[in-house]
Specification:
Number of strands: 7
Strand content: 35-45%
Largest sheet: 7 strands, antiparallel
Strand order of the largest sheet: 1-2-3-4-5-6-7
Oligomer: single chain
Distance between the termini: 40 Å
Shape: extended
Length: 95
């Protein structure tokens, strides 16, 4: 019987920013790189993008929408996915 497969080591991500509105989170070699962006033309939507520098791609991983007077909403996986409210996304369970 072969030995069980080895567990992949965890990734250490570092927060790097020159702006409070648009920080970046990356591994030390930039093999994993996320940018968190709130564009001035969409001031109520913050996007979390994964950047793939080898293939020159930027994929939206999640979006957070915060409109005045409304509960915040979150969406994962792009524009084809459904929004969920912040209270659905972060649930408090007393147990």
């Amino acid at each position: 019987m072969p030995p069980p497969p080895k567990v992949q080591p965890p990734h250490k991500l570092e927060l790097s920013t020159n702006s409070l509105r648009n920080p970046a989170i990356a591994s030390s070699d930039d093999s994993i790189h996320y940018e968190i962006v709130t564009r001035f033309w969409h001031p109520h939507i913050t996007k979390i993008n994964r950047c793939d520098f080898e293939n020159l791609r930027v994929d939206t991983v999640a979006e957070i929408e915060r409109l005045p007077g409304r509960e915040a909403r979150v969406r994962f996986g792009g524009e084809k996915e459904d929004w969920i409210t912040a209270s659905q996304f972060v649930r408090f369970d007393e147990d």
